[in-house]
Every structure is written in structure tokens, then in C-alpha cells.
Amino acid sequence: MSESDVVPRVIARLVQHTDDRAAEVIHEAACAAGYLWRCGNADCRAHNYRGQRYCEGCGWGRSGRPVGDITPSLYDVPKQKWRALHRAVVAHFGQLDGPMPDAVVFDYFDGPGWRGAEVRTMHGGQCAEIAGGFRDRTVHEDIAAALDALTRFEKPAFGEHMRLVLSA
Ligand SMILES: [Zn+2]
Predict the structure, then answer these.
(1) In a domain, 68, yes or no
(2) Which residue in 87, 135, 148, 158 has its CB near the most CB atoms, within 10 A?
């Protein structure tokens, strides 16, 4: 078992056997040790495990505000290109049955620019992978075109991450 599997169990078990005050001390120690981080949303303040990019509870980052549309913003994407992607993604989920995701996150590892990115939706901090992402131009014509436009502006680097907030 990896550390990321064990640590949540250990912390949960320690907390289970203590009162609130001791639990707070355990959480603080775990934060100081880097096993946990605290949500920056003042209304939430939930503890999240290392490796989670966004808060489980509210989907915010640790910096105390919602993560912006592009995170990290390594370059200034022209706003038009950005809006085109936002529109296309909102239209896509509007067609589907079910709630609009809070955000869609893209992780680029390889493939034809942003269109090759792994894509996950976020609902209240819960992630779900979209199998195949928006790679297929014939299925996701508008989104693919918008992603290609971003890529033409600047090709993403390996491991680059982008979050598109839909609920804001
Ligand atoms: Zn939170």
C-alpha cells in the first residue's frame, strides 16, 4: 500500500479515538507534516489530503479563493479563445441529462495539444473522468475546435493543468 492509501486511514483512525480538541491537534500536526492541507475557503476550512488538488468539500483551492479559469496561468490566453471553449463546454453539458459540473479539469500528458488532455468533471469536489476526453473531433466538434485554438496559441507542456470553472 502506498503512503497516500495509508495516511488517510491512519488519520481517520486516530481521530476516531479522540475528542474534538485532540482531533484538532492531530489535524494540525498532519497539516504541519504535509499530510493534510486546509481549504482556503473561510466558510469551509475542510482538511484535504496531500495530492488532492481541490477541496473535497467545496472544490476551492488552498489559496482561499476559487481557482481561476486557467490554473496555473502560464500565459495570457486571448479572452475570445477562452470564452469559445467555455461556451462549447457549457453547451455540451447542457445537452446531457444531469447537473452542470462545477468545473472541468484538463491534464495534458500527450496527444494533439489540449485536445489530447485527460478530462475530468468536478461536482462538489468529486472528480469523475470523461473517458476519451474531448479528443474526438467528430463527436466534440466545437470543444475540439476551441481546444485546438488554444493549442495553436501555445502548445501545453507535459503535466500542464487547466481548470475551466462552469458554475461561476
Ligand atoms: Zn473547502
Answers:
(1) no
(2) 135
The answer on 38 and 84 residing in a single domain is no
Distance CA 78, CA 150 (A): 9
pLDDT digits (tens, 9 = 90+) for 117-166: 999 998 766 778 999 999 999 999 999 999 999 999 888 888 888 888 88
DSSP code at position 99: P
55 C-alpha vs ligand 1 centroid, how far in Å? 5
Does some domain include residue 70? no
**Separation of CA 146 and ligand 1 centre (Å):** 30
Biggest distance spanned by C-alpha atoms of the chain: 56
**pTM of this prediction?**
0.64
- Which residues form the domain of 39? 3-49
C-alpha cell at 122: 468536478
- The amino acid at residue 49 is Y
Output DSSP code: residue 43.
Answer: T
Q: 58, 166, 38: which is closest to 105 by C-alpha?
A: 166
Distance (angstroms) between ligand 1 centre and the Cα of 70 equals 19
Tell me if 74 is assigned to some domain.
no
> Do 136 and 157 meet the contact criterion of CB atoms below 8 Å apart?
no
User: What is the Cα 45 distance to its own chain's centre?
Assistant: 18
